[in-house]
Write a structure and sequence with these properties.
9 strands; about 240 residues; globular; alpha/beta; about 40% helix; seven-stranded parallel beta sheet; two-stranded antiparallel sheet; Rossmann fold
Length: about 240
């Protein structure tokens, strides 16, 4: 089985990283033959809430990363999830999240899924080991920026391994705003150019506030961009 890991990284919150990654997971599950799983390692569990509303687990990614040899999943078949999802769940009291446990989890998922989409929090001490492990283990990266945070994203891009592809997304773009040229540069590698622009849409971003998957908003232009990313990812997975 062809299996890859894409890690969504960011040094700044609120740019739409989780929204874009969850939307890609949904598009892959809905429209392609690839099996995709969304791995949530964020404390707010926003992606899990969008993809698997109402599904709660006792042993999620945080328990597994803390050393518990059990993990529960929200699936399309059993739970009506929009895509198979591993929520963070509660962390055991005083637990330390271990990067080696994330590597072990990803190896298990590679045996079952064509792509694991890992949603990582921004840089902080509690998650530093897990973030570093995810960056090392990933085959490719998702980097999302807004026009005002393009320089921050560029700095992060320079610190990622240069021999792996980056899917770069400029979110909440309005005509006349900066960032298109920079996003194109960030998404260009020896594997090709994977750079995308998502326009600002009020109803879409209101859905995010309500913790709903924004690609479900009727007529959203976001759907077109996400579907294009999903289609390009299928080709990229086969050649990385």
């Amino acid at each position: 089985m062809v299996s890859k890991v894409i890690a969504a990284v960011s040094n700044k919150g609120g740019v739409g990283k989780t929204t874009v990654l969850a939307s890609i997971a949904f598009a892959l599950a809905k429209e392609t033959r690839f099996r995709a799983v969304f791995v949530d390692v964020t404390p707010d569990a926003a992606g899990s809430a969008m993809l698997a509303p109402g599904c709660h687990v006792r042993f999620g990614t945080y328990a597994y990363l803390s050393g518990v040899d059990a993990i529960e999943m929200c699936t399309q078949e059993a739970d009506g999830a929009l895509a198979d999802t591993l929520p963070p769940g509660p962390a055991p009291p005083g637990a330390r999240l271990r990067g080696d446990r994330l590597v072990s989890l990803l190896e298990m998922l590679r045996a079952e899924y064509n792509i694991a989409l890992v949603d990582l929090p921004g840089a902080d001490e509690a998650h530093s080991d897990v973030i570093a492990a995810a960056v090392r283990a990933a085959d490719m990266y998702l980097l999302v920026a807004e026009p005002a945070s393009v320089n921050v994203a560029h700095g992060l891009r320079q610190r990622l391994p240069q021999d792996r592809p980056v899917v770069a997304v400029l979110n909440k773009f309005v005509d006349g705003a900066p960032g298109k040229h920079e996003i194109e540069a960030m998404g260009t590698s020896k594997f090709g150019k994977f750079a995308y622009v998502i326009p600002f849409e009020g109803p879409v971003h209101n859905a995010v506030v309500q913790r709903k998957l924004p690609v479900l908003v009727k007529g959203a232009r976001l759907v077109e961009v996400v579907d294009r990313i999903a289609a390009d990812l299928q080709r990229l997975i086969l050649h990385v």
